[in-house]
Amino acid sequence: MYVHGNSPLSPVVLDGHGPMDSINLNERNTSVTVGRGGLAGRTISVGDGQQRGEASRTAEKTANLFKKAGLVTGAIVAAPVAGPLLLAAKAISLIPRLVNQHILEPRAERTYRLANAVALNALAQPGANSILERGDVMARLRAHADATGRSALADADIRELVATGEHIARGLADHPIDPSTKVLKLDIGGVTHDVKASVHMARAVGWFMMARAAGQDVSRAGSGDASGTSDMVTSGSFVMKDPGNRMYDFLNSAPTAAARMSTHFEERIGHQEVFNFGITTKTKQRGIEDYQSRMPGAGGTMLFDKLRPDQRGTEELFVKFESVGCPPYFQSEPQHGIGAKFARMFAALDRNIGHATNFLHSVTGKGPNGAGVVSRQEHVYKGALKNTVNREFKELVSAAIRAGVVNADASAVGKSVHKLGLPYVEDATSAIREAAAKLGNAEIRAQCNAVMDTIQAESRRLGLASDVHGIERRGAEVHISIL
Q1: Do 129 and 166 sit in the same domain of this protein?
Q2: Do the beta carbons of residue 318 and residue 308 sit within 8 Å?
Q3: Domain that holds residue 323
Q4: Final residue of a domain: which of 358, 374, 390?
């Protein structure tokens, strides 16, 4: 925490909007700025002990009312037009999509396997001290496949994919891909194999990541953890160290790796690539579509991107498995024939529609739930932390505003929580607690302590088997180690 000014009632500045549109409702010149790394300079103003006027509260309630009314009105207006169009598009794509999924994609995969048989057979054999040898990792992977609708994958298929992904990860730990040929050279049993990224290889890396998570669940069980928490995410993200962006570069070299819009971990993204729409920009992240839906988690696509280096200078990678992505309409691998390329265009249309529908479901809180769902999203405002940290922090901010400890807009604070996650909540709570102590408000200070206790308890629960990786926690995302 960096303190500016000498006044004992200097306002605390904590805002999640960045330098161009930061919120500072207190006009004093002195401030306390909190935030670590990419969160530095986020602001919320701390008041002088006087309650805010009723007019301000009424204005906020009115603004929220119009905001909600606008969303509802927009949905009502758009539904009669967009609904039939989407249904028509899905109907048109139905037959070619099914033909592609059940006939053309399996045929192309057989062609791929024949052309790469020697390397694939070598990669399919687990190496020494494989994660597959640990405890009941394989049994947990079997249960994960069944729970996520991938029962068609035999145990042998899963073992082959995990072993392949493990060989790739071990190879990348030793050296990166060749920047010109995009080849990863792997020495297996004294024989060197040239490996290039593909949908199959991305699928294999994904199952190796899930095997790592399964290993962490084994550790949880061994420690006597009775919280019911699992790291084998079905709805949410993985974050891992990726020195030199080696895994990112490998995945990104796949023929079908493509740019797509996404905002996951946007404040920590390790590049400045964006889609420019004139009045706004959206971050470019990367996706690899699996039209056979044989990846782990939600199964249909791998979303990934490189994150900024941590405090020690080590790059990180986030990966999220979704049911459908936003694939380009004209995209294929070398083994795809003309028919498959044509059918893929309709399959891509169906996937893009599905992604838009899934996004609307996530906005309205109708995301995946029920048996077999492991929700480990990187958010605080929804998912695993919604009814613990998020609820308590919202109550704290409201109470602090009413008591005059904080001079801020609750809606703006909520946006900062949305954008910046747990580090922001922790820093904001600390700042409010400091202000409450200076003002002698024991009740708000005690409420801050309760929020901090909840943050620590939830962080311990979520990171029981993964805190050793040294990754900053943004929300409930799963941290793993692969290199």
Answers
A1: yes
A2: no
A3: 97-374
A4: 374
Radius of gyration of the chain (CA): 24
Give the integer Cα–Cα distance in Å for 389 and 400.
Answer: 16
For the stretch 435-479, pLDDT in tens is 999 999 999 999 999 999 999 999 999 999 999 999 999 999 999
What would the pLDDT profile of 10-63 be if each residue is shown by its tens digit? 334 444 333 222 223 232 222 334 444 434 444 444 444 443 333 334 334 433
Tokens of 122: 């070598």
Q: How many CB atoms lie within 10 A of CB 472?
A: 18
Query: How crowded is residue 398: how many other Cβ atoms within 10 Å of its Cβ?
Result: 13
439: Cα within 13 Å, side-chain hemisphere: 25
Is the pTM higher than 0.70? The answer reads yes
- The pLDDT tens digits for 53-104 are 333 343 344 334 334 444 444 444 444 555 677 677 777 888 888 898 899 9
22 backbone dihedrals φ, ψ, rounded to 5°: -70, 150
Say if 86 falls within a structural domain: no
Bridge partners (DSSP) listed for residue 274: 283
DSSP string, 375-401: EE-S-SSSGGGIIIIIHHHHHHHHHHH
